[in-house]
Amino acid sequence: MKVFLASRNTKKLAEMRRILAQHMPDVEVLGLDDVTSYAEPVEDQPTFEGNALLKARAGLAATGLPTVADDSGLCVDALNGMPGVLSARWSGTPLGDRRTADERNNTLLLQQLADVPDERRGAHFTCAVAFCASGIDHVVVEGRMDGRVIRETRGSGGFGYDVLFEADEQPGRTTAELDPDDKDAISHRGRALRAIAPQIAALLGR
Predict the structure, then answer these.
(1) CA distance to 10, 17, 103, 146, per residue, from 142 (Å)
(2) Closest CA relative to residue 194, chosen from 54, 59, 21
(3) How many CA atoms lie within 13 A of 23 on its CB side?
(4) Which residues are the active-site residues?
(5) pLDDT truncated to tens, each residue of the chain (206 aa)?
(6) DSSP structural state of residue 56
(7) 83: cis peptide before it, omega within 30°?
(8) Pair 122, 148: CB distance under 8 Å
(9) Is the pTM here over 0.85, yes or no?
(10) Which of 46, 5, 8, 11 has its CA nearest to residue 129?
(11) Do 44 and 17 touch, CB atoms closer than 8 A?
């Protein structure tokens, strides 16, 4: 069984493969680099759900494969829920490799929160995962991970804002310092994928 994940983020692909495999051990998850190139849609929707569904529909139309897509971001209380859907491009349109864009985004976020006291640095990650397949109504689920933004980057795992985020369920360590199993157990993406994986398996008759 082949399922297309509309992403070329290698760490995100690995995370999704781990979790989907628990429900669909014979699934082969293909990323954007594994299929014929197509024009990816502009993520211009105001919600995570809208962007995830936009990408899933585009992936299905381009590849014909059952398609999973996600949109996720960090919502910071002191910034009225921002960066939110703008998380990946908070410091501007991503240029160069992903690591460089992540560093710019993290630097900007730290600058914006420099004067915010620890007790007001609450935040949460949200992830919407959408699934589309021919002849099947779409499915969208959301997952959330609550925590706080710390004052310096720590850790080498994960991606994006993981180096700045301590989850309430794993205090003292950023999500970039957690091993994959520990992160999957509490992460917004892990929760969303665990919710949608059995639905995908059922819809595809696995």
Answers:
(1) 21, 18, 26, 13
(2) 21
(3) 19
(4) 71
(5) 899 999 988 877 887 788 778 877 888 899 999 999 999 999 999 999 999 999 999 999 999 999 999 999 999 999 999 999 999 999 987 666 677 889 999 999 999 999 999 999 999 999 999 999 999 889 999 999 999 999 999 999 888 999 999 999 999 999 999 998 899 899 999 899 889 988 988 888 76
(6) H
(7) yes
(8) yes
(9) yes
(10) 5
(11) no
Joined tokens for residue 140: 């969208």
Task: Give the bridge partners for 126, in sequence order.
Answer: 73, 144
191 contacts: CB under 8 Å, gap ≥ 6 = 127, 143, 144, 145
CA atoms of 12 and 188, how far apart (whole Å): 12
Copy the structure tokens of residue 149.
Answer: 């933004």
State the residue for tokens 């908070």.
Answer: 90
